Amino acid sequence: MKDKKEKLKERHFEAPKRLVVAMSGASGAQLGIELLKTMQDFPHWETHLVVSKGAERTIEQETKFTTEEVKELATKVYPVEDIGASIASGTFKTEGMVIIPCSMKTLAGVATGYSDNLVLRAADVTIKERRNLVLVARESPLSPIHLKNMLYLAELGATILPPMLTYYNHPVGVEDLTKHIIGKALNIFDIDIKGFKRWGETDIRAI
Ligand SMILES: Cc1cc2nc3c(=O)[nH]c(=O)nc-3n(C[C@H](O)[C@H](O)[C@H](O)COP(=O)(O)O)c2cc1C
């Protein structure tokens, strides 16, 4: 017969970790798609997705996916207008949020606390709860407005992670560059993705 302690141990299970993922209307919809796909390799994590109207447009313009197909990659999806969704409250426990890609409009909204949609409200909550916020901010060239907003958010503790080209890992194509950005973004949450080439840990010239 099992003792009380053993029974309690069986009943106790570790709740899955939650990552809020937002896609906004900057170029690079594929980055968000690949991040959602990658997260499926981590069954102990849930992805809570919100897609802005701008992102619906870039998904259509830049990828072979429909917005509905992208949404199917997430554990849970929330309409961007639903400012009363669970991720709009700090009491809903998450490990943080990634906005990938992050447009300059969304960046500005986050920087000013102008939370008129669920992407912005969830980011506002992430900041107020002092959780990790990663902004894969994309525009080129960057204006002083963009740079000031980035500096302000970086000073608040957000991670500004523009999808920059990286050559030291000897990328073969855009897939490798994409994977590297995703590896860097998920690294903030201690999620180690397969094939992420870390400097100093492998002889990357030999791969
Ligand atoms: C094909 C396409 C590409 C775009 N690329 C960018 C971009 O790289 N960076 C950016 O800040 N805005 C870009 N925009 C403009 C944003 O989508 C627009 O400012 C939108 O209002 C952003 O809203 P959201 O952040 O709520 O998605 C792009 C728009 C389109 C249609």
Describe the protein's topology:
Blueprint: H1 4-11, E1 17-23, H2 29-39, E2 45-51, H3 53-62, H4 67-71, E3 76-78, E4 96-102, H5 104-112, H6 118-128, E5 132-137, H7 144-156, E6 159-160, H8 174-187
Parallel strand pairs: 1-2, 1-4, 2-3, 4-5, 5-6
The structure holds flavin mononucleotide.
Q: State the secondary-structure class.
A: alpha/beta
Main sheet strand line-up: 3-2-1-4-5-6
CATH class term: Alpha Beta
Largest sheet descriptor: 6 strands, parallel
Percent in strands:
15-25%
What do you see in this structure?
The chain is of the alpha/beta class and 207 residues long. It has a single domain, classed as Rossmann fold. It contains eight helices and six strands. Strands 3-2-1-4-5-6 form a six-stranded parallel sheet, sandwiched between helices. The termini are far apart. The mean pLDDT is 94. Flavin mononucleotide binds next to helix 3 and helix 5.
Task: Fill in the keyword field for this structure.
207 residues; alpha/beta; Rossmann fold; six-stranded parallel β-sheet; 39% helix; binds flavin mononucleotide
Write a short abstract of this structure.
The chain is of the alpha/beta class and 207 residues long. It has helices at residues 4-11, 29-39, 53-62, 67-71, 104-112, 118-128, 144-156, 174-187; strands at 17-23, 45-51, 76-78, 96-102, 132-137, 159-160. It has a single domain (16-206), classed as Flavin prenyltransferase-like (Rossmann fold).
